[in-house]
Amino acid sequence: MRGLQLGTVTLLLACSSAEQNSTSNMTNTSGGSSTGTGGTAGASAGGSMSSGSTSVSNGGDTSSAAGTISAGGAEGGETGIGGDAGAGGEPSFGGAPDLNPGNPCAQNQLEFTPVKPIVELLVSRANRMSAEFGNSTLWEMVKGVLVDTVSAWQADVRFGLSLYSNPDPLSCPNLISTPFDFNNYPAIYDAFAATEPMGESPLGDSIVAATARLEAFQGAGLKVIIILADDNPDSCADPESDGTEDAQDLAVEAVRAARDKGIVTRVVMLDAFSSLDFVQALTNAGAETLPATYHNVYTPAELTTAYQEILTDITTCEFQLNGTVLPDQAHTGLVTIGEQQVPYALNTWQLVNGNIVRLMGPTCEMLKSSIGPFNIAFPCGAVTFQ
To answer: Which of 33-42, 152-161, 201-210 has the least mean pLDDT?
Structure first.
């Protein structure tokens, strides 16, 4: 993964014997063998929420239980006191002493790891891609940037490639595709080398086909289509439509349908020949928050930067959970970056397909610039495990 390096963080989901909700935080101590005393519960008219702690000990079996925090009551309880520090020994994990060992919630751990996404590179190979570009052509420029990008990211991303056009109306859209895989540079290089630009640009039909490819792929991970379009869209129904409203609407609806299936789309427009209103509508159709941003590129450097930014975002700010959050429990989660707690909201972070946490805009940027700890936590009962 490029940029910020994050390890897997394990959070213990735990319920007390009274079935109170609690999340645990990971802290570092220096061992010890004494157990802290629990705090006293505060009076509450609306129930209480325990906020226990899991101690990571460097040699010892120290554990301490924090007091309960009133959730809607008049005043909270007192915080428990942790045990004395010890020295030496092997790492061990202390547990909150009020847990019910027979409760399945107390026996599961929520882990999260940076997403290694499955990315469909959907690239136009319409006639216009043979246009001159400097001493070469647009096609050669795009090919050079994309194979270099794949080479740099192939250990972290399962890439697939679909080159789309419609040289034969009877087989529209005509896609030259590779399977999805890590270390897929050779297959993608060969696919580019085996064809040349021809035909028109049935963008909407091709997005539908790319969506079907990703749906059929069984591997775990965020599924993404990165669209590289070069001109006003055509359609299989009208190969010469050249950006008519029907062809544009087909592409926008195809992106919206992909989003509804949990597939993320990102848009890169080459040389901005299309209507900018259409490109914005296409981008918005697959976006989580509006207005969304597309990449309008004119040079190899700008195209390289566009792919780098997209791939950085989906591999730095997307996290795969080892459990599934119940559909009505997303709002109970809490993301912590350094000292900052970030509650669930459409513009802070989102839950995708129940098992991927996606940091949005400012939250993503906060994580990229942070050197402090990073946690994702949900209360007991909010997550199911296989």
So the answer is: 33-42
Where are the chain's structural domains? 18-98, 115-316
- Say what the alpha-carbon torsion angle 337, 342, 345, 346 is, to the nearest 10 degrees: -30
Q: Is the dihedral of CA 372, 373, 379, 384 positive or negative?
A: positive
**What is the bridge-based pairing of β-strands 324-325 and 383-384?**
antiparallel
CA atoms within 13 A on the CB side of 210: 36
C-alpha span between 233 and 242 (Å, rounded): 6
Evaluate whether 383 touches 323 at the Cβ level (below 8 Å). yes
Mean pLDDT across 353-369:
90
**pLDDT band, residue 291 (cuts 50/70/90):** confident
Cis peptide before 167 (omega within 30 of 0): no
Residue 323's alpha-carbon distances to 56, 95, 331, 368, in angstroms, are: 23, 21, 16, 25
CA distance 62 to 85: 8
Q: How many CB atoms lie within 10 A of CB 97?
A: 15
- Nearest Cα to Cα of residue 183 among 157, 203, 201, 205: 157
Asked if 347 and 289 touch (Cβ cutoff 8 Å), the reply is yes
Per DSSP, the residues of 15-61 read -BTT---BB-EEEE---BS-BPBPPPPPP-SS-EEE--EEEEEESB-
> Are the beta carbons of 286 and 280 closer than 8 angstroms?
no
Give the rounded percent of residues in the chain with a pLDDT score beyond 90.
52
Under the phi-then-psi rule, with left for phi > 0, alpha for psi from -120 to 50, and beta for the rest, what region is 262? left
Give alpha helix (H) positions in the chain.
138-153, 185-193, 203-216, 245-260, 276-285, 300-316, 361-369
Q: Domain 115-316 adopts which CATH fold?
A: Rossmann fold (3.40.50)
pTM of the model: 0.67
Instruction: Tell which residue, 316, 314, 319, 350, has the closest CA to residue 333.
Output: 350
* Burial of residue 189 (number of CB atoms within 10 Å: 0-12, 13-18, 19+): middle
**Cβ pair 282, 255 in contact under 8 A:** yes
Peptide linkage before 169 cis (omega within 30 of 0): no
Pair 152, 39: CB distance under 8 Å: no
More confident residue, 252 or 25: 252
